[in-house]
């Protein structure tokens, strides 16, 4: 479901400089809309509508993970108001075709993936119901009960950090297709909703003990070597899309660089 919206206070975050002025106006407008009415009822083009939703929203999948029927009927997968439903073949367990055939991204072309190759293809999804239990409240509690960021992130992340599935990789693998592919996953707009939710869980974990947890960071810069160990002074790579930012400056979502809170 789309129960809530992250509220941006003041100028929108690091993404703002990348966004053309007109789109930016909509995103800033989008920040105020949910208090009044659903973003969906606005007269934006569907693209801008979804842009606003994905940038400023998260998907709390614990509300949809009870069983397959609940998940498939989630507003997230609504064929017109959501992000498109799973391909019929995937719902009945067949291997193809897996193109997302309805919704705003029905003719959405991706150029990266599967795996590391460049190939123009339509957005794909393949429902994997067997991992739904990993998106339930108990699994979120397993992460938020951790006392250090190191154990928190391992409990959150899953493969390849852990042999067992955790909430991060479960979200990817349940949706499957491009989302299930390490390289192509960010091509599915659901990637943003899923990661916003993980960010929200991290944020709530931090706020339970801000004194310690707003500066508690660890981990590696990449999955495969060569990697660097992460510290507060680690500079986040943005290629040419934005200015580099020090991790220590984005630890707090309500700090100076980021400027939003989860509701
Ligand atoms: Cu991910």
Automatic annotation (TrEMBL):
Keyword Metal-binding: yes
Residue span, Tyrosinase copper-binding domain: 188-199
Molecular function (Gene Ontology), one example: oxidoreductase activity
Keyword Metal-binding: yes
UniProt keyword annotations, A-Z: Copper, Metal-binding
Gene3D superfamilies associated with the record: Di-copper center containing domain from catechol oxidase
InterPro entries referenced in this protein's UniProt entry, alphabetically: Di-copper_centre_dom_sf (IPR008922), Tyrosinase/Hemocyanin (IPR050316), Tyrosinase_Cu-bd (IPR002227)
Pfam families: Tyrosinase
Spans traversing the lipid bilayer: none
Name of the molecule in the record: Tyrosinase copper-binding domain-containing protein
